[in-house]
């Protein structure tokens, strides 16, 4: 297996580690300048895969569609979506350093600081035609309890594209996420259009995480559509 450039493994491990949120956001701030070269070294495909899935589902020319990129980071997802004709992009992230990089892409109409899981999205209800959360749904990152908040800001009939990793250290989180996804579907909040497991999601940063010695970890793209009819409140 090709050796990862020096420091990549450590930086990835640090942000996925067990540190408290303020410390982790500080790590992301510090990582912002090297983030894109690091994920390129990891052959990180999630932004490309998520954009492809969303563009596939989208019924109309996407130029006029309003889209929220949650945990937008440096703007990797925006770049992919822009390449597929999406023009009205808003982004939120918990790291000011990442948002500064995203601003430089000039691909976003609006960028807001928001620590998801700690505070609601600074956005009106039923505002977006699509919402993406690519890469941030994972152990020690965005909690699975944010799903209703993502639904709140999505228009009825709108799309939500989410990704998570399937590597060993994220499997417990993935199970919790899928339980929550199913529960919301059961309650009539949305319905599933796609759940696609992808083998070579990104390079593994350790042997333990690698899928059967391939040197890669796998991941999954989920695509949901918010139901047009509001679910009856129980009571």
Automatic annotation (TrEMBL):
Gene3D superfamilies: Vaccinia Virus protein VP39. GO terms for molecular function: S-adenosylmethionine-dependent methyltransferase activity. Pfam families: Methyltransf_11. Residues 68-161 form the Methyltransferase type domain. This is MET27 protein. It comes from Sakesphorus luctuosus. The lineage of its organism: Eukaryota, Metazoa, Chordata, Craniata, Vertebrata. The gene is Mettl27.
